[in-house]
Design the sequence.
């Protein structure tokens, strides 16, 4: 018996840009090791969302689409589910929402 189904996960262009900004900021302020550690933890959270997509809380509806958010440390991962794909559309510092 399979307990979970892992969905495909795609990053929007904005989410990719957010990841570059997070990486750059973390590297400048805390160095290479902390950047690797933080991005590894963030990647683990994305894997968890792919495995348990309904874990994130619904915070908005747009044209019948549920927008969800899930936190990792000081960042919010905002996403929606389309067919069998999870689309990460933003990863923002919790103060930027």
Sequence:
């Amino acid at each position: 018996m399979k307990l979970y189904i892992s969905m495909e996960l795609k990053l929007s262009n904005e989410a990719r840009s957010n990841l570059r900004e997070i990486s750059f900021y973390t590297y400048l302020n805390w160095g290479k090791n902390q950047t690797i550690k933080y991005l590894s933890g963030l990647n683990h959270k994305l894997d968890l969302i792919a495995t348990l997509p309904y874990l994130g809380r619904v915070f908005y509806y747009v044209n019948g689409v549920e927008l969800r958010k899930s936190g990792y440390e000081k960042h919010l991962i905002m996403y929606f589910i389309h067919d069998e794909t999870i689309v990460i559309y933003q990863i923002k510092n919790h103060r930027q929402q």
Helices lie at 13-51. The chain has a mean pLDDT of 91. The longest helix spans residues 13-51. The chain has one domain: 8-96.
